[in-house]
């Protein structure tokens, strides 16, 4: 028996055989290069650094500005730009005649060895960052063909490191669990690994060395432990715990499967916000009423460019396959610009990116990217209930122009003989105040609305939501925003089109009664809030909430947030 | 050339974030910047160098600034140390 401790990443409990996954790091050849090849190796190094920096930049633009992850990604970039690192690696190539991969490996090996003399806990924790930097760099230099990996199903996979490409292979591999020896929980692959739906533990020291092929083990994703060759007592413990956790999961599952019905018997459609198709593996998502918002910007990372029509169609279809066929899936087309992926498309010189060429404005300029995405969505629409959602709409003309491009996409598919949903719905995000103000007009040219409360709040209050100084002062609990949301919901009802809430507000337990009072009957929320919000909805009555809303709107001295916070407390 | 002695107060040591912040800000200046710990001297403009030193809380460091804008460089660096690299304790 031996117990290894790691960092918990995704919870779950499993027992089974371990399988060591042959890692690409071990495939680095130790052979020396010819002196003639030095220049080629140096050039490969330059390109690898460039590619890694570009990847980090793109990734950074997709995470929250004030998050720890944002800063860590910044540090990774500084390290890749470090002159000493580059000089050292170049010298190893030149002096030792090592291939670039081996030189990088050697450099980091020495570096980490010198770090291990430091007995400061925090510093040694950070080693994982260097593994990530090193592995991504090597991956970006190696040829893709060297990455053919065999994963044995029904086992606990143990890997030395997890580059994103390997993480992608873990989905649908039928694994019991995943153990990563080195890696940072803030990395892109960690985000991916979290959504596989199996227990995952990170930063497990010596895992690959300890786990000979086929060692039996128990993985506990909640505690972050891996018990190798468990004794009888531990096995009994496992069986008992597993039973209890299964019961708990069954309870969660039945909550997930239950409908969100208010006290006065109104059914509220509760859908999930997702970023990766794989997130639909989670039961909370699978049993929800659909995907109310699929953010597609992450697709860019599969190949560091937007995937082809075929590839996109395959990804959208995967979501359909994982859900009940009739459940709606709202796909938000690429929301580029603002702070997302702006450098890749030369948008960095705008003085005010959030008021610049983002969302639909970008897509109407880069029509080929837009048309290809629409073709991908249309192709998948043949298999399920897919809808197209346009971000950042401020003028009716943008909807007309988008419809024209949709027609072009349809024509091209007709010529290719591809089938698709001829009546596919096209709707818009209501997140720019002008669209909310003319919602009655917009409702006549759209098939649905989805209210993006984050951007709406930022634009209505003229307050950058990433500005820490504002704290809780500039929130959606503002009468101006409530009026706009109400106006949007009313316009949708009058014109008989569906309307949902998809911003943070819908995932906020305090805001739920307020939204119910406004007449919200569809909401799309962050996956970790799906169950809690379902539970909360059941505690309120829509009719009662209409009265509450009337009261708070009329009495200017009521602090709206406090008012609803109090309600939540009483309903606990 | 200016020499300064300093004791690191930062709770979690010069880990990856403060180290990269220090190197990045120091690199804006022309003057050289070195950090010495227990006789090991590294280039303070290199994240990897700083990380390699392994500076944890309470470590005594000698800082050396040398060049045309050494005064400004020193101010900026000391400022970072004083403000705990922008981290809350």
Defining key terms:
heterodimer, A: 572 residues, alpha/beta, Glucose Oxidase, domain 1, Enzyme I, Chain A, domain 2, TIM Barrel, 3 domains, nine-stranded mixed sheet, eight-stranded mixed sheet, 23 helices, 47% helix, B: 89 residues, alpha+beta, Histidine-containing Protein, Chain: A, four-stranded antiparallel sheet, 35% helix
Topology:
The complex is a heterodimer of chains A (572) and B (89).
Chain A: E1 2-5, E2 7-10, E3 13-20, H1 38-62, H2 68-81, H3 83-96, H4 100-115, H5 121-125, H6 127-141, E4 156-161, H7 164-170, E5 177-182, H8 188-194, E6 200-202, H9 207-210, E7 216-220, E8 225-228, H10 232-257, E9 260-261, E10 267-274, H11 283-286, E11 291-295, H12 309-322, E12 328-332, H13 360-365, H14 367-381, E13 385-390, H15 396-416, E14 425-430, H16 433-437, H17 439-445, E15 449-451, H18 453-460, H19 479-494, E16 499-501, H20 511-518, E17 522-526, H21 530-537, H22 542-554, H23 560-571
Parallel strand pairs in A: 3-4, 4-5, 5-6, 10-11, 10-17, 11-12, 12-13, 13-14, 14-15, 15-16
Antiparallel strand pairs in A: 1-8, 2-6, 3-7, 7-8, 9-10
Helix pairs in contact in A: 1-2, 1-6, 3-4, 4-6, 7-8, 12-14, 14-15, 17-19, 20-22
Chain B: E1 2-7, H1 16-26, E2 32-37, E3 40-43, H2 47-53, E4 60-66, H3 70-82
Antiparallel strand pairs in B: 1-4, 2-3, 2-4
Helix pairs in contact in B: 1-2
Structure, briefly:
Chain A is of the alpha/beta class and 572 residues long.
